[in-house]
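User: Show me an example of a complex going from sequences to structure tokens.

Assistant: Sure. Here are the input components:
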Amino acid sequence: QITLKESGPTLVKPTQTLTLTCTFSGFSLSTNGVGVGWIRQPPGKVLEWLALIYWDDDSHYSPALKTRVTITKDTSKNQVVLRMTDMDPVDTATYYCAHISVAGTVGYFQHWGQGTLITVPS
Amino acid sequence: DIQMTQSPSSLSASVGDRVTITCRASQSINIYLNWYQHKPGKAPNLLIYAASSLQGGVPSRFRGSGSGTYFTLTISSLQPEDFTTYYCQQSYRTPWTFGQGTKVEIK
């Protein structure tokens, strides 16, 4: 059974750096084809893809956030970490991590964490 | 970035109705298209991957079709638990992008 859980602060001050950890079980990030991604949803708005990292350390970022976001993995701890610098109130959102599976070459978010609400006060 | 446009943005239907949600990509994405159901306060749930493959455990009333730039999600007979929001998402090229969502409401 695959599970993922996001952890980190619930409140981040403007200009501070957010560090979110996704701790997972039921799969290994050293397995060919496997990845983990981060997605967020501001209150009342739509889902926004942020970043992903694959088993081979290949990583990709949203162009809109590329200068502020870093994704890393620790295979031995079964964790993926997202760092987002210079936080702003517009970054207030529920942040999800998700397990990426691949069918042929089509990637998709097969399993999701429960999400964590991050608030940046104005 | 590849833009994903869903329509309608919302719809009203009754239990037992057949509904279809469309998703258009701004360029051809082959079958790199996935559908998710998202209930408030819960994690999104994968319904369909690779345009038409049903995720295990998802009821067969959900059906995905399409390729290239035009895709549909059809729910053959709406059940009470289906009244929520649905998103399409492309994985043809990063950044992976989501549609703006379609909210299915009770008529």
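The lines above are the inputs; the final block is the predicted structure for all two components together. The mean pLDDT of chain A is 96.
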